[in-house]
Amino acid sequence: MKKIELEAVKSLKGEINIPGDKSISHRAIMLGSLAQGESHISNFLTGEDCLSTIDCFRKMGVDIHLSDKNVSIKGNGLHSLKKPSSLLYTGNSGTTTRIISGILSGQDFETQLNGDASIMKRPMSRIIKPLKMMNARIESQLNNDCTPLTIRPSNLKSIDYVSKIASAQVKSCILLAGMYAEGKTSVTEPYLSRNHTEIMVNFFGGKIETEGTKSIITPEPILEARDIIIPGDISSAAYFIAAALITPGSEVLIKNVGINPTRDGILTVCKKMGGNIELLNVNTKNGEKTADILVKYSDLRGVTIEGDIIPLLIDELTIIAVIAMFAKGTTIIKDAAELRVKESDRIKTITTNLSKMGANITETDDGMIIEGGSKLYGAETESFNDHRIAMSIAIASLNAKGKTIINNSDCVDISYPGFFEDLKKLSL
Ligand SMILES: O=C(O)C1=C[C@@H](OP(=O)(O)O)[C@@H](O)[C@H](O)C1
Ligand SMILES: C=C(OP(=O)(O)O)C(=O)O
After folding, report:
1. For ligand 1, what atom is nearest to the CA of residue 167?
2. Domain boundaries along the sequence of the chain
3. CATH class of 3-20+231-426
4. 350 Cβ contact list (under 8 Å, min separation 6)
5. Known catalytic membership, residue 315
6. Mean pLDDT for each 10-residue chunk of the chain (428 residues)?
7. Does the predicted interface ipTM exceed a cut of 0.90?
């Protein structure tokens, strides 16, 4: 377990290409494995979570070749997966664990699934319940609604599921199980969550229709191999957007970032706070919108963040808390109780760390209240093995007096290998 020591910087300047989108990288491996023929993926995210997804599909007999950030996958169709000879290990990845469970529910072999200590605490009832409604034989081995899971063969039936939470992992799990069910399966969410599964299934030749917050999949799609270019991950770009906004004299161009409207809540909030953000070279690649993002240091003001925007920035809320410390006035984050069941209890872990650095931040049941304008000091902080916490603290340290230590900082490799090196390259 490594630790890193960081000091304040004068400003951030320059251009950066950030790694590929985590959500899209996972889905490209999953759908490429179930398609007919050889798919090619470029700018694949080689973070540990996406490598866990590759590992699971290799164990089910799929020929996947990874070289630098390029992946080729030889898929053999929807019914081509083979029984793995050992347990499928999903590491730290909630996305892998939940979405793959839907696919596994439709297979004619039994699988066992588990992840690391953090995964073993994350709630799986949200997928177990709807999958059982589809007739899946999925069990939590310790009867605690967590992993390890056992999934046995069964004949799936379609359902129209109304989900209490807006979660793309839950939605994708059910829709992909729906590929193996008789009849159309639908999922309706309270608010729209990220729609990468819908976009990519359609791109591979399958059919998911969307009506408001309802997505409907047609079963037994014939998926055909495709070439996929993965855009940069807006959740990773968020750290550099924040760094440039809060550090005087900064100007950073972040190239080729995915700006899918179900992921761009961070841009909406930063603009509402008064952030100077411009989108350049807006484009679309394999159904996903992209742009270069130009960010300049800005005078910011506090805002309230709540309701239907929360799923559009769920992974960015810890870095938004950091931005809020540099805004005039109060920022209130509500309706974000989901943060408590991520890699760590992110409401607690970000509040604990930023408080140590001198922030005026208060934990609430479903969010945080942050008073901007406190003077920040370097402190010894903990990542709690949560990549987003480590990266958020790193950005806070750029404007704190003295040295900040982040213990267990190597967890950034989950979603952003090379994060600290990239940060150094932009720092003056
Ligand atoms: O589907 C996905 O790729 C993801 C969905 C979100 O989780 P939930 O579905 O639990 O909200 C997000 O937090 C996670 O990082 C990735
Ligand atoms: C919550 C996250 O990922 P996952 O749920 O896939 O572990 C994340 O990357 O912030």
Report:
1. 9
2. 3-20+231-426, 22-229
3. alpha beta
4. 318, 321, 361, 368, 389, 392
5. yes
6. 95 98 99 98 98 98 98 98 98 98 98 98 98 98 98 98 98 98 97 98 98 98 98 98 98 98 98 98 97 98 98 98 98 98 98 98 98 97 98 98 98 98 98
7. yes
